[in-house]
Amino acid sequence: MNTLYWFTRDLRLHDNPALLAASKSDMLLCVYVVDPRWFAPGPLQSKAMGGHRWRFLWQSLMALERSLRPLGQRLHIAYGEPETVIPELIHSHAVDRVIQSRQPGTREASQWQVIKAKTAEAVFQQFETLSLFTEGSLPIPLAELPDTFSQFRKRIEGAGDRPSERLRIRTLTALPPPPGFPEDNRGDCPPIPEPQHPLLFLGGEAAGLARLHEFLYTTHGVDRYKETRNALEDWDASSKFSPWLANGSLSVCEVVETLTEYETCETRNESTYWLWFELLWREYFHWYAIRHGANLFRRNGVQRKRRQATFYGHRFKAWCEGNTEYPIVNAAMNQLRETGYLSNRARQLAASCFVNELGLDWRYGAAWFEEQLIDYDVASNYGNWQYLAGVGADPRGLRQFNLVKQTQQYDPVGTFIDRWGGEAEQPVGLHTVDAADWPLL
Ligand SMILES: Cc1cc2nc3c(=O)[nH]c(=O)nc-3n(C[C@H](O)[C@H](O)[C@H](O)COP(=O)(O)OP(=O)(O)OC[C@H]3O[C@@H](n4cnc5c(N)ncnc54)[C@H](O)[C@@H]3O)c2cc1C
Questions:
Q1: Considering 24, 56, 159, 286, which has the largest number of Cβ atoms within 10 A of its Cβ?
Q2: Ligand 1: which of 344, 372, 374 to mutate, most ligand atoms within 8 Å of CB?
Q3: More confidently predicted of 430 and 439
């Protein structure tokens, strides 16, 4: 059996059931496809991939390649549209089987269908490697996914402790040989931008696992996580697992298993529970995205609720550039542009300002986050944006944060605002419209 393993958001050898299945082959071609369309602006102004995530992804791919080499394997990185690249590789290597991790997101699902339709000679298999549960082991049928996170959590926790059906799978130590490799065209990929700030995150499985152990066993940041997690800055205030979880360098099952071991051997308290609780939010949005398909990206959201919102170019630009009348939001947006990371609280404030104070269509804000975030995850990003815009998984409707109160509470002496230059010299007011603002890009 000749297998093509298409790496996507599962860039790891540990706990990877899809790669385990692919390892039962005579020949294995490991492929990652970099799609040129990620780097061009889309209909909502922003690109699907900005510089921060691209750098992190590239580091992750290089790390994966280094892990594959001792197993006699290598990673073929192709620059091109998967709908063309994958069928060509299937034909040129007499591939009988294509394996991939199942991903949320309509673009990903439709690509898979298009490729399948083009290449009837191969068998196509998907495995669930991005989530804690598989669709089959979820205690709720997907069609009955609750409308709110609370109901989801209660159903999950009511069904038993933590998912035990799919215990983590050991790191693979043997793989079948690769074929004679096609010529790599990775050199055509866009250049990797130089970072403006010392790098917070280093891509790759080893770095992700190291952070997991650091947050639990070295700094014990997890022991006080519930009290610290809303801080606007501070490395150990939250786990910082998200970039590795987002591209699959770190398995969420590995995180939960390690957390459970930690609770057994070290400390178990409200904070350790809260890390599990937040990982359940991620799980909820994962299934929410699969369940709701295209409605994840529609302005009226999954609730199909009409909301008054429009697109003012000057307001959008001021928000992206950290040049609004709201210093805390400016600081957050500057930090996002310069580093690719934002705390959860800062994301909430920036998004709330976008939909409430600025009255903008939430999808443009979500698309800007998609471009900028190093940990962009289609389900968590669009799910959280819908939630805050009052068209998603929140029965209470629109969520508006009081920016003045939030500043007093989370940045009382202005350290965050100063550090990220939140006091704009000439902030753009709500009603400044100039012909020169169009077109934006
Ligand atoms: C508008 C908006 C957009 C967001 N976009 C993304 C995104 O693209 N990718 C992403 O991973 N997270 C996103 N989040 C969720 C959250 O802000 C980040 O997961 C978190 O800040 C990452 O830092 P951390 O790993 O230190 O989180 P921690 O607080 O340590 O949480 C641990 C893990 O739990 C999960 N988690 C925590 N909060 C949430 C949440 N609200 N929703 C879903 N999962 C959660 C993440 O996997 C996170 O790594 C978004 C939140 C908002 C409000």
A1: 56
A2: 344
A3: 430
Q: Name every residue whose Cβ is closer than 8 Å to that of residue 108 and which is 6 or more positions away in sequence.
A: 8, 378
Instruction: Ligand 1: list residues with CB < 6 Å.
Output: 229, 238-242, 245-246, 275, 278-279, 281-282, 285, 343-344, 347-348, 351, 369, 373, 375-377, 380-381, 384-385, 388
Inter-residue contact 8 to 103 (CB < 8 Å): yes
Cα 305 to ligand 1 centre (Å): 25
Give the separation between CA 341 and CA 416, rounded to whole angstroms. 14
Q: For 182-222, give the DSSP string.
A: PPP-GGGSPPPPPPSS--S---SHHHHHHHHHIIIIIS-GG
CA of 225 to the centre of ligand 1 (A): 14
* Average confidence (pLDDT) over 296-309: 85
Global pTM value: 0.96
Among 301, 315, 265, CA closest to 385: 301
Q: Which residue has the tokens 């940990």?
A: 375
Mean pLDDT of the chain: 93
Q: Which domains does the chain possess? A: 1-129 (3.40.50.620), 131-166+205-297 (1.25.40.80), 313-437 (1.10.579.10)
